[in-house]
Design goal:
This protein is mainly α. Helix content is 60%, strand content 0%. The chain is built from 19 helices and no strands. It starts with 43 loop residues before the first helix and ends in a 5-residue tail after the last helix. The N terminus is likely disordered. The structure holds magnesium ion. Magnesium ion binds next to loops.
Length: 397
């Protein structure tokens, strides 16, 4: 879906509204963990984006669940199409605000690389399996993917991305995990969780673009699947408002329910985008910040207005209760969790069941649980199901 941010209500585009003084500048990047000569034709963030797009983990996103398992239908979002939609929304907003589009794109495309197969069900199961061994958290795993697990370069593990992209990828982090990261990278990407400072505005923006994207596309997928109805959605204020507005202008759409749904979602998306743009400008003006360093010390600046936040939270709550916890979704969830748990147990018993890359590490025994978690987290839905059948002789889902 397209937003034309330059023609939104009250959105006269003006250089005075640009926050470009607060944008991340690739020429001022804090650099990569392993020094590399600059690329002749691309800046640091463009190069990060390209490395992400060419990574193995990125290609796997096409077969990883967002809400609906990949085999449930060809039109549902996957982690890949979700990430593309986050990048599109993020770039639209970044352009209007004068922030760095390349950095937003790189973070958006990488933000879900650490997701397990089977969506949140898979992550919950893996987190349980890892309870005694540091747990499993998908944001941290996304960082592990780009820092360590991708194997493409002769001189280093991972993709060796710039600090700013890595900082955006680690969007949440528990205190205990931040302390661990701080040991291996003092003053690095985890520091802000200990200091309670903010990441770049581009990173803040990606968090919001993520929520705007899934709130909208999960309505679309939820209705398409038949698990949520229009009647239910009309109880949700944010949706009902644009639905009524659309029908008021196009009464004939009552006979064209799909177009009516798309137009409602399109208006909802656009207004959320305009709201973030306006609110962020006014937050920055109010905070009086003039530099990125000052912005990092201020509270979150890229945000919804209080009113939009209330309405967006209500939609999120509705989707949680009515779609993510729908009995039909829960049934696949339970089976997906069983698959993850049984895979985990099988590789613990016999690490040689994993490919040599994982099964022959120098001190495998010491890191066995983490290695198994890394291997399972990287799987696509369908690969995990095939592996489960191979190892247990039973077919789930
Ligand atoms: Mg996401």
């Amino acid at each position: 879906m397209q937003q034309d941010v330059s023609t939104g209500p009250g959105e006269a585009s003006s250089v005075f509204d640009s926050l470009s003084a607060l944008a991340s500048d690739p020429a001022q990047s804090r650099g990569r963990r392993f020094a590399e000569p600059p690329a002749p034709t691309r800046n640091a963030f463009q190069r990060d984006r390209d490395r992400i797009v060419h990574s193995t983990a990125f290609r796997r996103l096409v077969y990883k669940t967002q809400v609906f398992l990949n085999h449930e239908g060809d039109l549902f979002r996957t982690r890949l199409t979700h990430s593309l939609e986050v990048a599109q929304l993020g770039r639209s907003i970044a352009r209007a605000l004068g922030l760095n589009e390349d950095l937003v794109e790189a973070i958006a495309l990488a933000h879900d690389l650490g997701h397990t197969p089977f969506g949140h069900a898979g992550q919950d199961a893996l987190n349980e399996c890892m309870a005694e061994h540091g747990g499993f958290e998908h944001n941290l795993q996304s960082l592990r993917v780009v820092d360590r697990l991708e194997e493409r370069y002769p001189a280093f593990d991972g993709l060796n991305l710039s600090f700013e992209t890595r900082e955006g990828v680690l969007k949440h982090c528990s205190r205990i995990n931040a302390e661990h990261l701080e040991v291996s990278e003092p003053g690095g990407v985890a520091r802000r969780f200990l200091d309670r400072t903010q990441p770049s505005l581009e990173a803040q923006l990606c968090n919001l673009a993520d929520a705007i994207a899934y709130n909208a596309h999960d309505i679309d997928d939820g209705v398409r699947s038949g698990l949520i109805t229009l009647q239910q959605l009309l109880e949700v204020e944010l949706f009902a408002h644009y639905h009524q507005q659309t029908l008021g202008e196009h009464p004939d759409l009552v006979h064209k329910p799909r177009r009516l749904l798309y137009e409602t979602i399109r208006r909802m998306l656009s207004d959320q985008v305009y709201d973030v743009i306006q609110t962020t400008r006014s937050n920055v003006a109010q905070a009086g910040v003039k530099t990125l360093a000052e912005a990092r010390q201020a509270g979150p600046l890229v945000a919804f207005s209080a009113d939009m936040k209330t309405r967006s939270d209500a939609l999120k709550k509705f989707l949680f209760a009515s779609l993510y916890r729908h009995p039909q979704v829960m049934q696949t969830t339970l089976q997906a969790q069983q698959a993850v748990r049984e895979l985990f147990a099988a590789y613990l018993r016999d690490p040689a069941g994993m490919p040599a890359d994982f099964a022959t590490g120098a001190d495998l025994q010491r890191h066995l649980h983490r290695t198994v978690a890394d291997y399972i987290a990287g799987m696509t839905d369908r690969f995990a199901l095939r592996e489960h059948e191979r190892l247990t002789g039973r077919r789930l889902l």
